């Protein structure tokens, strides 16, 4: 199969045009989910889609779908997409790149006069960021059944405004059924990390999302006077927790480079400058590409912490707060991306998604994969988030050719 190429300038111009909607002072974007700014961004996108001959429809949680008919409209659509909402001080590419790359694919197919066998759709998932309403990846969670529609509609923002009210306000809810079948889902996205840039590669072939395990840890010692208690007689919860933190770093080295370990929150109970801490609570975030390994990491945390607590005479409680298994993407979709990037002859590597994406939910619904491009300095969720025009173009070329491969494959 020969390769086709998109128009890089057209895609870049659209990205920059979208970035004017909800622009922030420092060159970023603020389009909180279902806000007036989000509505303005959606409207601009819808105008572009209609200009490209597409039709717009919504489902009950406000996910927006732009559709281009195929040769056989009885077939389930091949869907591209991501999200247009941003963090309060978000960037111009996170999510937007996947949506506008989908649009650029359609525009290019229009240029080439190609109609695919299956219909093509571009999905704009509602509230991916989780900045206004939690949880994140909200629209795709409702679509795929991971979150109930009613729970989602009842969710409130910090001002007490519900999703249901906000949806009614912008009018972007409709009758498209949730969970309707997709032939496949392709999401192009900035990497949001430094790996591709560090390796000097424009394209990442994403093979899946990593497993995540969250632990809540409670260490209990004895509060006592900082001036009157000799060191050997103390049961100091803080020094115990500190030693546990150092043990975590060793665990990360034992599972390097795929194992990641973070203590993101730590609290000294009833803290006081001149009191030995009697109680410490902290969180542990464990990540790994593979499920068996994340279980071994969790086990290592238990064993290491228990040893430390015992030696120091401390109480210890470890509770698992959340476990999200690894999400392998679909081999056939990955192969379509790999063939596309190889035929285009673009430098690339396999990569695992470190962040959550709508594609993680979609992977449980239909054959799914992602395409990553580097972002400057690995920076994301930041007004300074940036991507290079050449990388933006190449990632979208890969999307176009991967979708065409999917569309032209022999029937199952
Ligand atoms: Zn995103």
Write up this protein.
The protein is built from 12 helices and 16 strands. It is α+β, with helices and mostly antiparallel strands. The protein has 2 domains: 8-209 and 327-408, Aminopeptidase (3-Layer(aba) Sandwich); 211-324, Alpha-Beta Plaits (2-Layer Sandwich), CATH 3.30.70.360. 46% of the residues are buried. Zinc ion (ZN) binds at residues 83, 94-95, 128, 189, 357.
Task: Give a quick set of tags describing it.
412 residues; alpha+beta; Aminopeptidase; Alpha-Beta Plaits; 2 domains; five-stranded antiparallel sheet; binds zinc ion
Give a short synopsis of this structure.
This protein has twelve helices and 16 strands. With 412 residues, the protein is an alpha+beta fold. Strand 3, helix 3 and strand 4 form a beta-alpha-beta unit.
Provide the fold topology.
Blueprint lengths: L7 H11 L17 H16 L3 E4 L5 E5 L9 E5 L13 H17 L7 E5 L13 H7 L4 H6 L8 H8 L13 E7 L4 H5 L3 E7 L1 E10 L3 E2 L11 H18 L5 E3 L3 E3 L6 E2 L2 E10 L2 H22 L2 E10 L2 E2 L2 H14 L3 E6 L4 H5 L5 E6 L15 H20 L4
Parallel strand pairs: 3-4, 3-5, 5-16, 6-15
Antiparallel strand pairs: 1-2, 2-4, 6-14, 6-16, 7-12, 7-13, 8-11, 9-12, 10-12
Helix pairs in contact: 1-3, 1-12, 3-12, 8-9, 10-12
Zinc ion binds next to loops.
């Amino acid at each position: 199969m020969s390769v086709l190429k998109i128009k890089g300038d057209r895609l870049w111009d659209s990205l920059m045009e979208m970035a004017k909607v909800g622009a922030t002072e420092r060159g970023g974007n603020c389009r909180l989910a279902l806000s007036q700014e989000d509505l303005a961004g959606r409207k601009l996108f819808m105008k572009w889609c209609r200009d490209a001959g597409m039709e717009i429809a919504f489902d009950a949680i406000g996910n927006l779908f732009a559709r281009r008919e195929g040769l056989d409209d009885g077939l389930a659509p091949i869907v591209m997409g991501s999200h247009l909402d941003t963090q309060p001080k978000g960037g111009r590419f996170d999510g937007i790149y996947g949506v506008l790359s989908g649009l650029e694919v359609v525009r290019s197919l229009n240029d080439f006069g190609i109609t695919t066998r299956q219909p093509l759709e571009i999905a704009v998932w509602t509230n991916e960021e989780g900045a206004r309403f939690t949880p994140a990846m909200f629209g795709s969670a409702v679509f795929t059944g991971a979150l109930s529609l009613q729970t989602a509609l009842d969710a409130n923002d910090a001002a007490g405004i519900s999703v249901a009210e906000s949806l009614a306000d912008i009018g972007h809810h409709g009758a498209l059924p949730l969970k309707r079948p997709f032939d496949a889902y392709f999401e192009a996205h900035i990497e949001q990390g430094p790996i591709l840039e560090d390796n000097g590669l424009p394209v990442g072939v994403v093979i899946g999302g990593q497993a995540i395990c969250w632990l809540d840890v409670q260490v209990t010692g004895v509060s006592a006077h900082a001036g009157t208690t000799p060191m050997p007689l103390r049961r100091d919860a803080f020094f115990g927790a500190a030693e546990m933190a150092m043990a975590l770093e060793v665990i990360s080295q034992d599972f390097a480079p795929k194992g990641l370990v973070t203590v993101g929150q730590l609290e000294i109970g009833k803290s006081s400058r001149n009191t030995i801490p009697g109680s410490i609570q902290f969180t542990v975030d464990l990540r790994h590409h593979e499920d068996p390994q994340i279980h071994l990491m969790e086990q290592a945390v238990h064993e290491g912490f228990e040893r430390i607590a015992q030696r120091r005479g401390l109480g210890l409680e470890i509770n698992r707060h959340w476990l999200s298994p690894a999400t392998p993407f679909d081999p056939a979709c990955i192969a379509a991306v790999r063939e596309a990037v190889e035929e285009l002859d673009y430098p690339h590597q396999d990569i695992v998604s470190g962040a959550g994406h709508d594609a993680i939910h979609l992977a449980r619904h239909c054959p799914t994969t992602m395409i990553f491009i580097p972002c400057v300095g690995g920076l994301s969720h930041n007004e300074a988030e940036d991507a290079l025009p050449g990388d933006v173009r190449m990632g979208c070329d890969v999307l176009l050719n991967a979708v065409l491969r999917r569309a032209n494959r022999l029937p199952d």
